[in-house]
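Appendix C: a fully annotated inverse folding record. The material below is reproduced so that readers can follow the format used throughout the book. The structure is listed first as tokens, followed by the designed sequence.
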């Protein structure tokens, strides 16, 4: 009987301790949950407002900065909620630091991409909306995020390229200047009139409004090939007119040469058949 009474007494003590802990920590836990809920809502609202504001002024900086601000604010919110429960923030920060070091060592590539994103935003080799050629892809920059840059190719594919690769390798930005030079080459036969062919090319260029006259177009003999005289044509156009102008010129030159009797040589092979004695 005495053992039973002692057991009941210990159970009562444990129950009292449990009730005391619940009474002591329940308000803190509830306050922490409320703080987390309201804090997350406020952070999301703030980031959305920042996204809307920066999106109008600087689309390049927009996604990168919003993502970074969101991560930092949420970490600070978690630390604040932990301190409300009673967890020592110094220990919590130390744990986060140690975990961050371990994660950093495991995710060196991601850190390199983050550093690459910072370099891209600082030095601005390209911005959202620019047409670039990088890592074997050509397309328009859609978004520069914390770790990756997203481009949309002209055949409607979405390509995600790590920022670390973009910041440490060469790329071509085709949107920096308003004008670009269109380089073309047309071959004519050795028996054709060079001056006549050049005059036809100059006429076709002059008739096209997309061809800029300053700098002046250039039509010269660029080389003597195995079976053709190669005429080099260099014409400056607006950046958006480059490829349409190039494609149209290929067709118009072929039709004009045919109409004017200028030949365009193509590879031919002669086969001599020998009769057996």
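Designed amino acids, in order:
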């Amino acid at each position: 009987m005495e053992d039973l009474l002692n057991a009941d007494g210990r159970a009562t003590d444990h129950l009292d301790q449990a009730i005391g802990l619940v009474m002591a920590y329940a308000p803190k836990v509830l306050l922490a949950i409320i703080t987390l809920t309201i804090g997350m809502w406020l952070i999301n609202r703030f980031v959305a407002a920042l996204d809307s504001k920066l999106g109008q002024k600087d689309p390049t900086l927009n996604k990168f900065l919003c993502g970074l601000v969101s991560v930092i604010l949420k970490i600070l919110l978690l630390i604040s909620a932990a301190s409300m429960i009673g967890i020592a923030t110094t220990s919590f920060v130390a744990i986060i630091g140690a975990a961050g070091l371990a994660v950093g060592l495991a995710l060196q590539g991601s850190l390199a991409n983050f550093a690459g994103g910072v370099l891209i935003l600082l030095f601005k080799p390209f911005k959202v909306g620019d047409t670039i050629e990088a890592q074997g892809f050509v397309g328009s920059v859609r978004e520069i995020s914390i770790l990756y840059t997203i481009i949309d190719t002209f055949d409607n594919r979405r390509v995600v390229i790590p920022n670390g690769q973009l910041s440490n390798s060469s790329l071509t930005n085709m949107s920096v200047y308003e004008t670009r030079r269109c380089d073309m080459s047309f071959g004519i036969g050795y028996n054709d009139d060079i001056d006549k062919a050049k005059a036809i090319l100059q006429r076709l260029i002059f008739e096209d409004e997309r061809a800029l006259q300053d700098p002046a177009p250039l039509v010269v003999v660029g080389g003597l090939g195995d079976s053709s005289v190669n005429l080099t044509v260099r014409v400056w156009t607006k950046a958006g007119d480059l490829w349409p102008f190039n494609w149209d010129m290929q067709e118009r030159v072929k039709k004009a040469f045919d109409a004017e009797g200028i030949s365009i040589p193509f590879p031919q092979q002669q086969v001599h058949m020998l009769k057996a004695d």
